[in-house]
Design goal:
The protein is of the alpha/beta class and 285 residues long. The chain contains 13 helices and 6 strands. The protein folds into 2 domains: 9-83, Orthogonal Bundle (434 Repressor (Amino-terminal Domain)), CATH 1.10.260; 88-283, Endonuclease, Chain A, CATH 3.30.870. The chain starts with 6 loop residues before the first helix and ends with a helix. It holds the Pfam family DUF5753.
Length: 285
C-alpha cells in the first residue's frame, strides 16, 4: 500500500542536505567519488534527488564528511528510508516521468506552457487516450489504459477540495485546432477546458496565432513551486527518452520571465474562455 510520504520530495531534501555537508567539508563531488570508489555522476545524482539513496549511501557519505552528531546521521538515515518508499504512482508500474509526478504531487503551484496539446491535468479521458495512442504507436492497449489512468489520478491535485494545486496554463492556439481522436472528442475537451477555467485556482489563457513570434516557440515547459522553502522551484522540460529538471536560480528566473511574457501576450482569462467556446462550436459543426 502506498505511503503518504512523498519519496521524490524526500530524495530531493536528503540530496540537498548531503550537498550542504559536502560543501561544508570543502570537498568536490569528484573528490568524494574518489574516496568512495564510485562515479562522480552517482554523487551528482544523489545530491540532485534523481537517484534512490540507500541508508548505506548515507552512512558512507557521513563518514567521508566526518559527521559525528548521531542525531544528524539518524535523521538522514530516516530520510533515506522514507525516500525508498513507494508513491501512489508506483502501483501503475514503470512510469517514465515518475520523478515529475512526485514533484507535481507535492507542488503548491504549477505554471505550464503547452505548444501542441492540452495540458495533461486538463485532459478528458477520451482526449488522453487518443493522445497516448497517437504519440506512442507501439503501445499495447494495456499500456495506453495505464497511462490514461495515471493522468486521471494526477488530476486529483486540481480537484482536491482541501488543497488544490494552483494551476496556470498558457496554451497555444494550435493545441485547440489540432484534431486529436475525432471532432466529438475535441468538442468534449474544449467544454472541459472552459469548465476547469471557471475554477478560482485554475487560470487558462490561449496564445493565438496572430501574436506572431513568442518566447514559447522553443517548446513546452513547466515551472513547479513548493510551499516548503527547502524545496527549490523547478523547471521541467519533458523529453522523448529523458527529462530535464532545472533548479538553479538563474535558470528558474529565465523561464519565469519567459512565462510572464507568454502570459502578457496571451488572451486574458475571460477572452480565452470566449475563444475556446468558439472553437468548441467549430468542432460541433
Amino acid at each position: 500500500m502506498a505511503s503518504s510520504v512523498n519519496p521524490t520530495v524526500r530524495r530531493r531534501r536528503l540530496g540537498q542536505e548531503l550537498r550542504k555537508l559536502r560543501e561544508l567539508k570543502g570537498m568536490t563531488a569528484e573528490e568524494v567519488a574518489e574516496r568512495l570508489l564510485v562515479s562522480q555522476s552517482k554523487i551528482s545524482r544523489l545530491e540532485n534527488g534523481r537517484r534512490s539513496i540507500s541508508q548505506r549511501d548515507v552512512r558512507d557519505l557521513c563518514g567521508v564528511y566526518g559527521v559525528e552528531d548521531h542525531r544528524i546521521v539518524d535523521s538522514l538515515m530516516q530520510m533515506a528510508k522514507e525516500s525508498r518508499q513507494q508513491g501512489w504512482w508506483h502501483a501503475f508500474g514503470d512510469i517514465p516521468y515518475s520523478v515529475y509526478i512526485g514533484l507535481e504531487t507535492d507542488a503548491a503551484s504549477l505554471r505550464v506552457y503547452e505548444a501542441s496539446l492540452v495540458p495533461g491535468l486538463l485532459q478528458t479521458p477520451n482526449y488522453a487516450n487518443a493522445v497516448t495512442e497517437g504519440s506512442w504507436p507501439e503501445a499495447t492497449t494495456a499500456d495506453i489504459e495505464r497511462r490514461v489512468q495515471v493522468r486521471m489520478r494526477r488530476q486529483e491535485r486540481i480537484t482536491d477540495p482541501e488543497n488544490p494545486l494552483r494551476l496556470w496554463a498558457v496554451i497555444d492556439e494550435s493545441a485547440l485546432r489540432r484534431i486529436v481522436g475525432n471532432r466529438a472528442i475535441m468538442r468534449e475537451q474544449m467544454r472541459q477546458l472552459v469548465q476547469f477555467s471557471l475554477e478560482p485556482h485554475i487560470t487558462v489563457q490561449v496564445l493565438p496565432y496572430d501574436v506572431g513570434a513568442h518566447p514559447g516557440m522553443y517548446g513546452k515547459f513547466s515551472i513547479l513551486e513548493f510551499t516548503d522553502p527547502q524545496d527549490a522551484s523547478t523547471v521541467y522540460l519533458e523529453g522523448i527518452t529523458s527529462d530535464l529538471y532545472l533548479e538553479k536560480p538563474n535558470d528558474v528566473q529565465t523561464y519565469s520571465v519567459m512565462y510572464e511574457h507568454l502570459r502578457m501576450q496571451a488572451l486574458n482569462a475571460d477572452h480565452s474562455r470566449q475563444f475556446i467556446d468558439r472553437v468548441a462550436e467549430e468542432w460541433t459543426s
